[in-house]
TrEMBL record:
InterPro entries referenced in this protein's UniProt entry, alphabetically: YdhG-like
Residue stretches making up the YdhG-like domain: 24-113
Protein name: YdhG-like domain-containing protein
Top-rank taxon: Bacteria
Pfam family, any one: DUF1801
């Protein structure tokens, strides 16, 4: 499964990917939406992206083996590497297993960091 999917909406993207990946990404999406209710969810780069005040915050994707939270910032990835209790960071992407969606606490840490960068 490729990272990008031909979809016009986030829901369409999630409907086109296989379980358990879609379920895990839905859980993470819902948690991010709770943390940042003012965010906008769009498809960009063929993946779901959360935007705040017109700026990309984080994105979601899935591969054949794992789910990913796209941090959209190499400096954020460097700063958060070793600080998060879940997942593993490669480049500017946090990878996690589909049977272990990222917790609200981990997502809040990431979102707070990224919001600080975007401010």
């Amino acid at each position: 499964m490729a990272r990008g999917v031909d979809a016009d909406t986030v829901e369409e993207y999630l409907d086109k990917i296989d379980e358990p990946f879609a379920g895990a990404l839905r859980t993470v999406r819902d948690r991010i939406a709770e943390i940042v209710p003012e965010s906008e969810q769009v498809i960009k780069y063929r993946v779901p992206i959360f935007r705040v005040r017109g700026k990309d915050l984080v994105g979601l994707s899935a591969t054949a083996k794992e789910c990913s939270l796209l941090l959209m910032s190499p400096p954020a990835a460097s700063a958060l590497r070793g600080e998060l209790a879940e997942g593993s960071i490669t480049g500017a992407t946090l990878h996690f297993a589909p049977d272990a969606p990222l917790s609200s606490a981990t997502l809040r840490t990431i979102v707070d960091y990224r919001l600080g960068e975007l401010a």
